[in-house]
Amino acid sequence: MEAQELLIALHDESAGYGISPDRVPLSVLRSFAKDVDEFLRGDSNDVDTSTLDVSVEKGSLAFRTAPTANPVLMNDLRKLASTQEMDGVGPKRRAVMERWQKSARGSRRWRVSIAADFLPTAIVISAESDFRADDADQWVRVERYVRGEIEDMGGMQGRMPTFVCQTARRCWSMLLAKCCETKRSIAFTSRR
């Protein structure tokens, strides 16, 4: 695989002016440089960033890397260029992309672009993009039936009704629909 230069650029006008190498808030420079470092290193320090030279480009805050030929980094970039689903991307790069996507959604004037000669198009993280991981927890609707008895209906003193389950012998608050011991939610339905 041939070594390729990468251009990772931050375009941000949320401070009231377009950032550039001439003028950039220190906190933005620090966090973006940290994110770029983490993105390039990946999970198993794919790229040794301590020896990697970068140049700061005009027009925005952009880092151009020296040519690198890391196959893991190149594969992750190809995946990101082809789809906005980050299922096959390493966890550290995915975390950086999720941070960038969250920042882009928070401000219409904030975006990051990643370009290289081997990519068909530049990867752009902006308010219009939707980079996400679909391997998140899948929620399933569950209905549970609990047998027990109401021990205290609350009443004038402002106490909450209390339900004690026969099997687990745990106390459930009916108004909050949470167990006072395990804090798990439960839905109660009344049948007549």
Counting DSSP E segments of at least 2 residues, the number of strands comes to 9
Please list the strands of the largest sheet in the order they lie side by side. Answer: 2-3-1-4-5
**Global shape:** elongated
Oligomer classification: single chain
Order of helices and strands: EHEEHHEEEEEE
End-to-end Cα distance, whole Å, is 72 Å
Taken as a percent bin, the fraction of beta residues is: 15-25%
Give the biggest sheet: 5 strands, antiparallel
Q: Identify low-pLDDT runs.
A: 172-177, 185-192
The secondary-structure class comes to alpha+beta
Estimated radius of gyration: 26 Å
- Average pLDDT across residues? 77
* Overall helicity: 10-25%
Please work out how many helical segments DSSP would assign: 3
Description:
The protein has three helices and nine strands. By secondary structure, it is of the alpha+beta class. It has a domain at 4-125. It has a five-stranded antiparallel sheet. The chain has a four-stranded antiparallel sheet with strand order 6-7-8-9, with no helix packed on it. Residues 172-177 and 185-192 have low confidence and may be disordered.
Quick description:
The protein is α+β, with helices and mostly antiparallel strands and 192 residues long. Helices cover 23% and strands 20% of the residues.
